[in-house]
Design brief:
By secondary structure, the protein is mainly alpha-helical. Helix 8 packs across helix 9 and helix 11 runs antiparallel to helix 12. The protein is elongated and about 100 Å long. Among the domains are: 143 residues; 107 residues, Serine Threonine Protein Phosphatase 5, Tetratricopeptide repeat (Alpha Horseshoe), CATH 1.25.40. Belongs to the BZW family. Pfam families: HEAT_5MP1_2, W2. This is Protein krasavietz.
């Protein structure tokens, strides 16, 4: 029976671990202590602060502790959930050389100096840009727990950082948090950002930036959903002289409401609802969303004309269009109760017939249908005929309407002469 031979073992041999395989202990508080010591030596000399941070990046691991670094520069120490300064490790836990410690009476030049500190730091260490953007989103979630003066200072800095491109404008959307919205903290903070931006760069710059980032589509989500929400929202912007931003929101809201109205009408037509019920629905919706009659009638035209599959032959499409539109004359009539609505509809028809070549010769027949069914009055037709509201295809359409307009004018003259003879 063979015996198992033991393998020889080297004694006294120590296997060395390569330096790159050794994991350095995560020590954010050691990093904090080093940064606080350096900043305290700089005092409020911003040149010294930038010089120190530039050099410290060669010794301290900014890539690993970037979040802690920006916590310290903004709040003075490492922030823990809830927005408080961490008390772990050895004191001191915070430094006075930070944004939150600038005087409560805001001095924009001081705030801009801090802006430059952060910009220079990120130019020197490009990898900090992404860390900084994530850090701001985190800090914005803590805004409820900061003191009113700290919130004010943060709002100034956020407006400066957004306007200089350090953080994207949509970073503020993290404020759309149920706890922040419920207590009006979200909207109040956002308005503070807008106010500082307007003060520094003007309302036109703010307007363009909001529109470019599509922020206006989210504004209402910053307000609690209560009966008073619309009034509170409106008053908040008016009281802070931000009427232009309120108008931008209202314009966007109107566009969305018009799209919803078109969907509502389209579904009603597809379901075959009675015109009476459809008219009632449209009126209720438009009253709620304050959509004007002259806008509604154009939406009705676009929706009604999108229903059929149109014949591609010009000689056949006219009769098809007249037959189709006859079904909806009462619908059009309900929303052409004033001259502006009638003229808008007529111009909409002109634009449609010009843009769809097969309808070029259908214009006159459609207008005649609407005249006979009291959708468009003779006064509006004559006004359109004499004035150039829309030059697209106008000469061709005027030529189509010439005989009818002459008939209208002669009838009007005969009526006038009859009245004078009486």
């Amino acid at each position: 029976m063979s015996q198992k031979v033991e393998k020889p073992v080297l004694s006294g041999q120590r296997i060395k671990t390569r330096k790159r395989d050794e994991k350095e202990k995560y020590d954010p508080f050691g990093f904090r202590d080093a940064i606080i010591t350096g900043l305290d030596k700089c005092g409020n000399d911003f040149e010294n602060i930038s010089r120190y941070l530039d050099g410290a990046g060669n010794k301290l691991d900014y890539r690993r502790y970037g979040e802690c670094l920006f916590d310290i520069l903004i709040a003075g120490g490492i922030l823990v959930p809830g927005g408080a300064i961490s008390q772990e490790g050895d004191p001191p836990y915070k430094t006075d050389v930070c944004i939150f410690n600038v005087p409560d009476d805001i001095n924009l030049e001081v705030m801009k100096s801090w802006e430059q500190v952060v910009i220079k730091l990120m130019r020197r260490y490009k990898y900090l840009e992404k860390i900084f953007q994530d850090e701001i989103r985190k800090i914005l979630l803590f805004v409820k727990y900061f003191s009113p003066p700290e919130r004010k200072k943060l709002s100034v800095m956020v407006s400066l950082w957004i306007s200089n491109g350090s953080i994207p404008f949509n970073s503020v959307l993290v404020l759309n948090n149920s706890h922040l919205v419920k207590e009006h903290v979200a909207l109040d903070f956002l308005i503070e950002i807008f106010k500082w931006w307007r003060q520094e760069k003007g309302v036109n710059s703010l307007y363009s930036a909001i529109k470019k980032a599509n922020i206006e589509t989210h504004l209402m989500s910053f307000v609690p959903d209560t009966k008073q929400s619309q009034m509170y929202f409106r008053n908040a912007f008016m009281e802070n002289e931000l009427e232009d931003i309120l108008k931008l929101y209202n314009d966007q809201h109107q566009q969305q409401a018009k799209k919803e109205l078109q969907i509502l009408l389209s579904e009603s037509l597809q379901e075959g609802k009675s015109l009476k019920d459809t008219i009632t629905e449209i009126k209720e919706f438009s009253n709620r969303e304050t959509i004007q009659e002259h806008e509604i009638v154009c939406i009705i035209w676009s929706t009604v004309m999108s229903v059929p599959e149109w014949n591609k032959k010009e000689e056949l499409v006219t009769d098809q269009a007249v037959r189709h539109l006859k079904q909806y004359t009462n619908l059009f009539s309900a929303f052409t109760q004033n001259a502006r609505s009638e003229l808008n509809l007529l111009l909409k028809i002109q634009d449609y017939c010009y843009s769809n070549m097969t309808f070029m010769r259908a214009f006159q027949k459609i207008i005649m249908l609407f005249y006979k069914t009291d959708v468009i009055s003779e006064q509006v037709i004559l006004k359109w005929y004499k004035q150039d509201y829309n030059v697209k295809g106008k000469m061709m359409f005027v030529d189509q309407m010439k005989n009818f307009v002459e008939w209208l004018q002669n009838a009007e003259e005969e009526s006038d002469s009859d009245a004078s003879s009486d």
